[in-house]
Specification:
The chain is of the alpha/beta class and about 475 residues long. Helix content is about 40%, strand content about 15%. It contains 20 helices and 16 strands. A hairpin with a 2-residue loop joins strand 4 and strand 5.
């Protein structure tokens, strides 16, 4: 008969006796084993005696900062995860703790249900029997898991991030390194570089992989509906609210919430989102009580948020909350060596989507034609180019005549002046200053609307504002003219 594994062993570090006792009793009550320490020195002595599954430490201690304990655990590659308790509203300390290697942070005053939830989340996937090493004979820390230890789900998600160039290898390594923590990640990159694929890989490589992954395009939600969409609605909150409806935070409970096009959030919603992140609670419209949330936040944008902060278009405190770990995705033009791999993977996906028995191959002159194009739309534009070639040309091999990238609508990057793809914008759009409404009685031309969408990096909200349209009207014409979201 197998011997049951002992309960997880935790170390609580706090110099206030009442709080230390409160945390200890709360955790003992739910079945954990708990040791305590009241100073940095005594905590280090405890760690020298044994290994724990989790260390919970206050930021300010009589003889130093709890941050020093986090850095020690990280530097020594110990197996413990760490949670730091910071003063209320101290965004800087929270960010510093996560960057130092803390798994999570809590802000004072700590609600006991929130403490229990944070501990349970940190212990997911942790072995319950800590390896003990008494009196300084601590067992060696386990080696970091390599690619062979990936779950099938994680391996599949990472395989979708195609490319063997040094920047893409670094991206995949970074994903595996930061995925196990609760630290928010900000994914930066031009439109079409695959930021959502990176977010999905972060989710698949995390301990939350079995939970939901909820993707939200912040630029596609009407401003007057944002609060209801994010936080949910209670029955009777307004006319037409005939039933409770969960928001994105509730839908992502126990998983990952991906906020795409973060830079398009209006300032009032930024303030509400910041509070939800800090408090880890949301209040649905029409509700009188707040609900606890347990989500890992991953955000993405093609905007330079630091510049938006300087210009007052994005809240600095929200920027620091979400930009704990920054992950930049290089544009396709900066990893030209990945072009053959990318084209092969996209052709395989397109062939499967179209029911072809096997994908066509690209002739050398076709690859050369692709290499001459800067692809300002990145992977999305490459996929569209290949899909067009696949639709218009038959045969097992696609030659240079099949490769017809669309004209660029943005200046090409340096080095592509002689590429033959000069940037062009249709004349009616050149004569239409930003903010000038499209004539109400004029039916939009497909090519002109497609060019304007591409010029705005397919941001529908920005395009609608420039045309003087509602978002619903833009989507109607996109659907009528065959311009899908990923066109």
């Amino acid at each position: 008969m197998a011997t049951p594994s002992p309960a997880p062993h935790l170390l609580v570090v706090d110099d206030e006796p009442d709080l230390r006792t409160l945390y200890e009793l709360t955790l003992l009550k739910v079945g954990y084993r708990v040791d305590t320490a009241d100073t940095l020195a005594s905590a280090r002595a405890r760690l020298a005696e044994r290994h724990y599954q989790l260390v919970i430490t206050d930021m300010r201690l009589p003889d130093g900062l709890g941050l020093e304990l986090v850095r020690q655990v990280t530097a020594e590659q110990r197996p413990e995860k760490t949670i730091v308790i910071t003063a209320y509203g101290s965004a800087h300390n929270a960010v510093e703790a996560l960057k130092a290697g803390a798994f999570d942070y809590l802000t004072k005053p700590v609600e006991l249900p929130q403490l229990r939830q944070a501990v349970a989340t940190a212990l997911q996937g942790q072995p319950s029997n800590a390896t003990q090493g008494h009196h300084g004979s601590a067992a060696p820390a386990p080696q970091q898991a390599g690619p062979s230890a990936l779950t099938p789900q994680a391996a599949a998600a990472l395989a979708c991030i195609v490319g063997h160039s040094a920047p893409m290898v670094a991206v995949r390594q970074h994903i595996q390194r930061v995925a196990p923590t609760m630290a928010p990640v900000l994914v930066l990159g031009e439109s079409g570089t695959g930021k959502e694929l990176v977010a999905r890989a972060l989710h698949a490589c995390s301990h939350r992989a079995a939970g939901p992954f909820v993707a939200v395009n912040c630029g596609a939600i009407p401003e007057n509906l944002m609060e209801a969409e994010f936080f949910g609605v209670r029955k009777g909150a307004y006319t037409g609210a005939t039933a409770d409806r969960p928001g994105y935070f509730q839908a992502a409970q126990g998983g990952t919430l991906f906020l795409d096009e973060l830079g398009d959030l209006p300032l009032p919603m930024q303030a509400k989102l910041l509070r939800a992140i800090q408090e880890r609670q949301v209040r649905p419209l029409g509700a009188t009580q707040e609900e606890a949330t347990d989500v890992r936040l991953v955000s993405a944008t093609h905007h330079e948020l630091a510049r938006a902060v300087q210009q007052g278009r994005f809240r600095q405190d929200l920027y620091y909350r979400l930009n704990v770990i920054e992950l930049r995705i290089p544009p396709l033009r900066e990893r030209a060596s990945d072009l053959p791999d990318m084209a092969h993977a996209l052709l395989a996906r397109l062939a499967q989507r179209n029911g072809l028995p096997q994908p066509p191959t690209l002739a050398p002159d076709a690859l050369a034609a692709l290499a001459r194009h800067p692809f300002p739309g990145n992977v999305r534009e490459l996929e569209n180019t290949l899909e067009r070639a696949l639709a218009l040309h038959t045969g097992p091999t696609l030659g240079a005549e099949a490769i017809q990238p669309p004209p660029s609508v943005a200046p090409p990057p340096p080095g592509f002046a002689d590429s033959g793809f000069a940037p062009t914008v249709p004349a009616p759009l050149q004569a239409l200053p930003p903010g000038t409404p499209w004539p109400a009685d004029a039916e939009p031309d497909r090519a002109h609307l497609a060019a304007l969408l591409a010029h705005n990096r397919w941001n529908q909200s920005r395009t609608a504002r420039q045309l003087g349209w509602t978002l619903a009207k833009l989507r109607y014409w996109m659907q009528r003219l065959g311009l899908g979201d990923s066109a």
